[in-house]
Specification:
disordered C terminus, two-stranded parallel sheet, three-stranded antiparallel beta sheet, Growth Hormone, Chain: A, disordered N terminus, 15 helices, mainly alpha
């Protein structure tokens, strides 16, 4: 593919598909990192419930007794935890802390070491962690290393996407849509590879973790090769005297407040959404008829393959969604940014009503896998209305002095959401399944209502900040047919 030069400035910008070449490298780096993360996540609950936490298996794992005692004290009144609730709490806390540490990783990058070095430190640490998981004895140490490594990696890869564009460049919204497709390309293939290895008795779970580690190594090599195409960190520019440290303005603080307010309902979104890798995986294993065509084609869909439904639909539906938004825009009916996020939460609630219907109509299990297919269609649409919009919003309105830290703050919604997700998931084996899914639907509805209530004051704050920066008001919306998954 030829590289064309289209920038109007005196200093020409080398582009690929109309975007800076660095976007392709960041896209590919994130794709492999997400391959690693979601490959491990797809098999985590199954490994815990079917292998590690069974009697006589986990006692030799470093930290097991301490973690079990802590969770029983905090979440079960000091009483022993059964395998499923305990595995849900481990899963929830792991996926939660993975999204807490980016706040601190962003802070460290902004103040001291910069985004580039942070991504390298995080990537190497996560690669080591995935290989560490292959040993049951070191399993919890591996989880800790993943949490630390992701803290350095996650916020600083995301902020570098925004750093490729100058203030007011409307391509940034499409860039985050492209970047989000990269996340989900990796997330689509990883359960097929890591999950298939884990569920195959000839290989087993440790080789699933190994495949995730190899993916992380590939991503790190790609990132190192990409360094020449990426802009200098703000820390480096400050040291070189090309930018100066400036105090936060009133508009900056208003933008910070807007993002913090949106964190509240977004936490509830992730608490419900992230059941996919936890209780939805158990539903697929224990309560679903996974025969491709019952009575005709008896081949069973592997449990972990259901984790590929959502990412596949992300890159299949993204062009349709942005085309639909473009049509609405030409008619003057495109919803505001925060309204879109409210609609995403409504669709999240609807997806769990589908699961409640599946449980109600199949009280003894054996529900068709098509119920899960419908669930993933609706929850994916909800995600597209919320998650990439949030990333682009944070990148656009956050003060540049604390951009990585603010991206880390946004990821804290996933920390609090996953903490709540793990606790909610612990009731899966204790509650009637219809009631459990209605509980999840109710949380989605509450999130939708809260986001809608915040819409008007937040729109004023956001528009004020965007006007100050000289950017068009609609810049946070991914636009049109420039989403190229092949990048």
């Amino acid at each position: 593919m030829a590289i064309v030069d289209t920038a109007p400035d005196a200093e020409k910008e080398k582009t690929l598909f109309g975007h800076p070449r660095g976007l392709t490298w960041l896209f590919t780096t994130e794709m492999w990192e997400r391959f690693s993360y979601y490959g491990m996540r797809a098999i985590l609950v199954l490994y815990l419930t079917n292998v590690l936490l069974l009697p006589g298996q986990a006692e030799n794992a470093i930290g097991y007794a301490t973690i079990k005692h802590l969770f029983e004290s905090l979440f079960n009144g000091g009483q022993p935890l059964a395998v499923q609730p305990f595995s849900s709490l481990i899963y929830g806390n792991y996926t939660a802390f993975v999204y807490l540490t980016p706040f601190f990783g962003g802070l460290i990058a902004d103040r001291w070491i910069g985004q580039r070095m942070s991504v390298i430190i995080g990537g190497v640490t996560m690669a080591i962690a995935e290989f560490t998981l292959m040993s049951p004895h070191l399993f919890f140490i591996g989880l800790l290393l993943l949490i630390i490594g992701n803290g350095f990696f996650k916020p600083n890869i995301s902020t570098q996407v925004g750093g490729l564009y100058k203030p007011g460049d409307s391509r940034i919204d499409r860039a985050y849509s492209i970047f989000y497709v990269g996340i989900n390309v990796g997330a689509f293939f990883s359960p097929l590879v890591c999950g298939s290895l884990a569920e195959d008795p000839a290989w087993g779970y440790k080789w699933g973790f190994c495949a995730a580690g190899i993916g992380m190594v590939i991503g790190q090599i790609i990132y190192i090769l990409a360094l020449r195409t990426l802009p200098r960190d703000r820390v480096e520019q400050t040291r070189a005297g090309t930018v100066t440290k400036e105090p936060l303005t009133g508009n900056d603080w208003k933008a910070i407040v807007a993002i913090i307010l949106l964190c509240i309902p977004t936490t509830l979104f992730w608490a419900t959404y992230e059941q996919q890798g936890n209780t939805i995986s158990l539903w697929a294993e224990q309560f679903t008829n996974r025969a491709l065509i019952p009575g005709v084609v008896g081949w069973q869909i592997p449990v972990t393959w259901f984790q590929s439904f959502n990412p596949f639909m992300i890159f299949a539906f993204t062009p349709l969604v942005v085309w639909f938004w473009g049509r609405q825009m030409t008619r003057g009916k495109e919803p505001a940014t925060v309204t879109k996020m409210a609609l995403g939460n409504f669709m999240l609630a609807l997806s769990y009503l589908i699961m409640a219907a599946a449980a109600y109509l199949n009280p003894h299990g054996g529900a068709s896998w098509l119920w899960l297919f419908g669930f993933f269609v609706v929850i994916t649409m909800g995600e597209l209305y919320l998650s990439p919009i949030g990333l682009a919003l944070v990148a656009r309105v956050s003060p540049p002095q604390i951009l990585s830290m603010m991206m880390g703050l946004w990821f804290i919604t996933s920390f609090t959401g996953n903490q709540l997700q793990g606790y909610i998931g612990s009731f899966f084996s204790r509650m009637d399944k219809v009631s459990f899914f209605l509980l999840c639907a109710g949380l989605g509805l509450v999130a939708a209502v809260l986001t809608w209530i915040f819409e008007r004051p937040l729109r004023t704050i956001i528009e004020s900040k965007m006007a100050k920066s000289g950017a068009p008001n609609a810049v946070v919306e991914p636009q049109g047919a420039e989403v190229h998954p092949a990048q």
